[in-house]
Amino acid sequence: MFDDEILPPGQRLVEGWPARHYGPVPKFRQERWEFRVFGATASGDKHSWGFEEFIELPLVTVVADMHCVSRKTVPGNEWSGVATSTILALAPPAPDVTHVMVWAEYGFSANIRLHEFASDQTLLARFRNGEALTPEHGFPVRLVVPSLYAYKGPKWVRGIEYMTEDRRGFWEERGYHNIGEVWAEQRYSYQEDLGEGPSFA
Ligand SMILES: Nc1nc2c(c(=O)[nH]1)N[C@H]1C(S)=C(S)[C@@H](COP(=O)(O)O)O[C@H]1N2
Ligand SMILES: [Mo]
């Protein structure tokens, strides 16, 4: 069905939907779960949504391929979830925010430029192809940024930190490209040009 699809450079199609992540699958505990927005918010206040509140937020749908930096592509995913523009409207960033850190369970993180986070293709996905995410695929919510390699899309997201300067996330500290654009094939940090990432601490 997707055989005639043009894939980004260096990618190949994978069948099915293998799970891929570092560490164990976190246990979901509804009463302890909250989605937080913190860091440089416009008001200076933190925002948080409990699970019941979060699932009341309106849904959007985006169809996108998912590209793992290890070259496997899962094509044609229909993601539904909360538009990041909804979060940005309800919990606006301060004017000098340039990047966000997306935080997940167990301290996993990914840094993303604000304009990519704010894209109308970016969402906090709760469903794939009409079904709720399974635990190993990120239940209850994962970030999807179609233009970036999937390490920029944390599963089990718990919060967004607004940042006024760039900082590397989990995989970005471990040799993966700070920006990670799929069509530019920005896989590894050694490919970074000056200005594409903060220096390593
Ligand atoms: N929390 C967390 N999210 C993560 C990862 C991870 O290690 N931890 N790995 C990323 C990578 S590298 C990929 S390719 C995708 C895989 O998503 P999947 O398991 O649903 O196929 O999850 C991304 N999100
Ligand atoms: Mo990946």
Structure description:
- The model has no long low-confidence stretch (mean pLDDT 96).
- By secondary structure, the protein is mainly beta.
- Strands 1, 4, 5, 8, 9 and 10 form a six-stranded mixed β-sheet that branches. The protein has a five-stranded mixed β-sheet with strand order 3-2-11-6-7.
- It has a domain at 31-168: Oxidoreductase, molybdopterin-binding domain (Sulfite Oxidase, Chain A, domain 2, Alpha-Beta Complex), CATH 3.90.420.
- The protein is globular, with a radius of gyration of 16 Å.
- The chain contains three helices and eleven strands.
- The site of the ligand Nc1nc2c(c(=O)[nH]1)N[C@H]1C(S)=C(S)[C@@H](COP(=O)(O)O)O[C@H]1N2 has 15 residues, from loops.
CATH superfamily of one domain: Oxidoreductase, molybdopterin-binding domain
By CATH reckoning, the class of one domain would read Alpha Beta
Q: What CATH architecture of one domain do you see?
A: Alpha-Beta Complex
Q: Give, in order, the helices and strands.
A: EEEHEEHEEHEEEE
Helix content: under 10%
Looking at the structure, the CATH topology of one domain is Sulfite Oxidase, Chain A, domain 2
Give short descriptive properties of this protein.
201 residues, mainly beta, Sulfite Oxidase, Chain A, domain 2, 5-stranded mixed sheet, binds ligand MTE, binds molybdenum atom
